[in-house]
Description:
- The chain has helices spanning 5-10, 22-61, 71-74, 79-103, 106-116.
- By secondary structure, the protein is an all-alpha fold.
Amino acid sequence: MPLNPQDIVRKEFREALRGYNQADVDLFLDEVVEEFTKLAEDNQKMKVRIAALQQEVARLREGRGPPAPGPVHAATDDPQRVENEVRARVRRFLEEQIKQLEAATPSATVQKIERDAPQAPAPEAPVAEQREPFWAGE
């Protein structure tokens, strides 16, 4: 049975003797719904991206449009070779991105986070109550 975020939100659990804390269950289900929604959205985006890439492969196979640079064009007769080449290119790109992130100075990152983060008001220090000792008035 396919499951969607609304199914999780509407799910009712029966109460039982010595059951779980209902507030804890509700909080957890809220987290599950949020994560499930993100995953469903990402899944839908990936499906759209896959369809676009499949159309691009079909277009290249039919000889419409410019040839792709490098060995991908030569390998368009074999989908497995195309996939392997795309994976290799993505891997190289991600490795370059990771190297750039690692090379960035940590202090610049911390400064950016501090600059972009909303500032919370400073907590007020408790004021000590000024009273005369109970014996002072006697």
